[in-house]
Write a sequence for this structure.
């Protein structure tokens, strides 16, 4: 996967943890804006064998305020749980019988009600939603929050690229190395867009003269 925009002579490859530092504040701001407004006509291009769509990227700026329990994720979770349930015939049978019993109890209440009522079909996934099944979030540190976002991103099947904006400043060098190993373990493509050099990792740097170069372990 690659990213390209007007100031680059050639596209930057994105593989596992890739960090792009943009030192010019105005350029950094413009790139962030283009990511939020990203579409087919954007001057910024993200592509693999074909152009990556807006729906295929996830941009994260507010780490603490980011909600991992998005509708898309929960839909995937419910679908996976339903598949697990289907494979366990005994548990599935108990589950379905409980749903039928609950429907019967509700229908009994219809008898004494003035209006003619009917009950729709209840799916297993709807039951998960009613019970509020969701990803448990108990992150005590910003590092834990970031790793949780990465872990959850793995299950968003339609997403191809995760982008963090200005988050490395919250992490020390040890955490950044651990983060790189964590991303590699999950075989994900994650781009870190930063306004200043980061210590201890490989990074692309677009300096204030718009010259792009790659260096390691920048202090």
């Amino acid at each position: 996967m690659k990213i390209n925009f007007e100031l680059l002579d050639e596209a930057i490859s994105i593989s596992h943890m890739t960090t792009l530092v943009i030192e010019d504040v105005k350029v950094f701001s413009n790139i962030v804006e283009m990511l939020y407004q990203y579409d087919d006509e954007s001057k910024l291009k993200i592509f693999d064998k074909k152009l990556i769509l807006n729906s295929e990227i996830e941009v994260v700026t507010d780490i603490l305020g980011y909600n991992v329990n998005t509708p898309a994720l929960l839909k995937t979770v419910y679908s996976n749980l339903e598949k697990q349930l289907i494979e366990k015939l005994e548990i599935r049978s108990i589950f379905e019988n409980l749903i039928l019993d609950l429907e019967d109890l509700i229908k009994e209440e219809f008898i004494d009600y003035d209006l003619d009522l009917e009950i729709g079909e209840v799916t297993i996934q709807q039951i998960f939603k009613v019970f509020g099944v969701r990803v448990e979030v108990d992150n005590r540190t910003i590092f834990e929050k970031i790793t949780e976002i990465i872990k959850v991103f793995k299950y968003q099947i339609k997403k191809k690229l995760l982008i963090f904006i200005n988050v490395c400043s919250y992490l020390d060098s040890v955490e950044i190395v651990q983060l790189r190993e964590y991303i590699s373990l999950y075989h994900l493509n994650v781009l870190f867009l930063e306004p200043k050099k980061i210590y201890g990792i490989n990074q692309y740097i677009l300096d204030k003269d718009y010259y792009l170069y790659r260096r390691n372990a920048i202090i």
Notes: The chain has two domains: 2-68+135-215, 71-130.
